[in-house]
Each structure stands twice: as structure tokens, then as C-alpha cells.
Design goal:
It is a single chain. The chain is α+β, with helices and mostly antiparallel strands. The chain folds into two domains: 30-39 and 62-173, Jelly Rolls (Sandwich), CATH 2.60.120; 174-213, no CATH class. Helix content is 16%, strand content 27%. The protein is built from four helices and ten strands; from the N terminus they run H-E-E-E-E-E-E-E-E-E-E-H-H-H. It has helices spanning 6-16, 178-183, 191-198, 202-211; strands spanning 72-77, 91-97, 102-107, 113-119, 121-127, 133-139, 143-146, 152-156, 162-168, 176-177. Strands 1-2-9-4-7 form a five-stranded antiparallel β-sheet, with no helix packed on it. Oxalate binds at residues 93, 103, 108, 113. May play a role in plant defense. Probably has no oxalate oxidase activity even if the active site is conserved. Residues 1-21 form the signal peptide. It comes from Brassica napus (Rape).
């Protein structure tokens, strides 16, 4: 059997090893993002001048307005709202629910999510790529984890409001919310695709699109 040359194996390692992490590792103590500049592969260019305030953020403690159709509101602490996170590979969310509120099925393409219930009782579930649902009702002080990229949701099943604090191993994890992605995209996904996918007709698809129109 012919052995692979050492140079090929070294090149393969150089490509594979960085892919094991979510965001690239920083090359300096910190790099507070300059949001006025265009982002690069690993975030924003560094600000030339920083102060202590660049490393502190109070946005996770502000009460949120949950009076919307889903009964949920999210306050993110990511690189766009807290530039001190730039290049550090982490972010957090404050998620608040009205009674019965639902954070609809969605995924984070760039991060694993971990969360802890601060208040209330929340039904948390995620789906694997073989369509297995893992779910549980968790209460204040209990936590959950959702593997990177998997579809998941949260539902307030308590009698009062509920609150989560979630964290991600990416400074900007992204979020693809299935209902609005499928029925509220611009340009629209052709009806022929959606009727075939959901085994329904144009009337049903158009009705759903009307609910998610921008």
C-alpha cells in the first residue's frame, strides 16, 4: 500500500484542526470591535482606543416587552450590541416569555447553545437529524444544551412569565427561524416548492405567507 507523503498529512491537519472550534481563536488579549468598519472572517477590526466601559454590558437585565404574537422577546449580547465580545467566541441572550409564550422552532448555524432557567417553567426541546425529539420541562436553576445547528424551541408552560439566560460559543451565532424563513423570505420561496414540501395547496401556503409578510 502506498503511504501518503508527510507534507499532505501536515496540510490536512492545518485545514481540519481549526474547523473543530466555532469561532477562530484570538491572537491578542482583546479586540474591541469597531462596528463602523466592515467585518472580516473573524469579526470586526479592533478599535484603536478602548476604555473600561468596552468590557461591561447591562443589556441583559432590562425588562422586555413580550406583547407580540409569539409572546417572547430576546435581548442579545453579541458582538453587534457588545463590541467587547469581538473575536472572543461567545455571546449571550436574555429571553423572556409571557404565559404560554413560544420561542418558535429555529436553529443557530454557528454555535452550540446552553441555557439556564432564571424564572418559571419552560418546555425545551431539540430535534436531531434523524427526527428524534429530545425534550423536558425545566424549572428555575436548571439548564439545557442544544448542539450546534439543530432545530430547537422553548415554550413557557408555567402560569406566570418565564425567563432564560442563554449562551453561545460564537460572538454572532445567527438564527434561522423556520416559520419566517420558509414563509416570509424575500424573494419568496415559490409556492410549488412549499405545496410539494408540506403536501398542501396554494391557498394554505398563501395564507401562511400572509402571516409572515414583512
Amino acid at each position: 500500500m502506498t503511504s501518503l507523503p508527510i507534507s499532505f498529512l501536515l496540510t490536512l491537519c492545518l485545514f481540519v484542526i481549526p474547523s473543530l472550534s466555532s469561532d477562530s481563536d484570538p491572537l491578542q488579549d482583546f479586540c474591541v470591535g469597531d462596528l463602523k468598519a466592515s467585518p472580516s472572517l473573524n469579526g470586526f477590526p479592533c478599535k484603536s482606543s478602548v476604555s473600561a466601559s468596552d468590557f461591561f454590558f447591562s443589556g441583559l437585565g432590562i425588562p422586555l416587552n413580550t406583547s407580540n404574537r409569539n409572546g417572547v422577546a430576546v435581548a442579545p449580547a453579541n458582538v453587534l450590541t457588545f463590541p467587547g465580545l469581538n473575536t472572543l467566541g461567545l455571546s449571550m441572550n436574555n429571553v423572556e416569555f409571557a404565559p404560554g409564550g413560544v420561542n418558535p422552532p429555529h436553529s443557530h448555524p454557528r454555535a452550540t447553545e446552553a441555557g439556564v432557567v432564571i424564572e418559571g417553567s419552560v418546555f425545551v426541546g431539540f430535534l436531531t437529524t434523524n427526527n428524534t425529539l429530545f425534550s423536558k420541562v425545566i424549572h428555575a436553576g436548571e439548564m439545557f444544551v442544544v448542539p450546534r445547528g439543530l432545530v430547537h424551541f422553548q415554550w413557557n408552560v408555567g402560569k406566570g412569565k418565564a425567563r432564560l439566560i442563554t449562551s453561545f460559543n460564537s460572538q454572532l451565532p445567527g438564527s434561522a427561524v423556520l416559520p419566517s424563513t420558509l414563509f416570509g423570505s424575500m424573494p419568496e420561496i415559490p409556492n410549488a416548492v412549499l405545496t410539494k414540501t408540506f403536501r398542501t395547496d396554494d391557498a394554505a401556503v398563501n395564507n401562511l405567507k400572509s402571516k409572515f409578510a414583512v
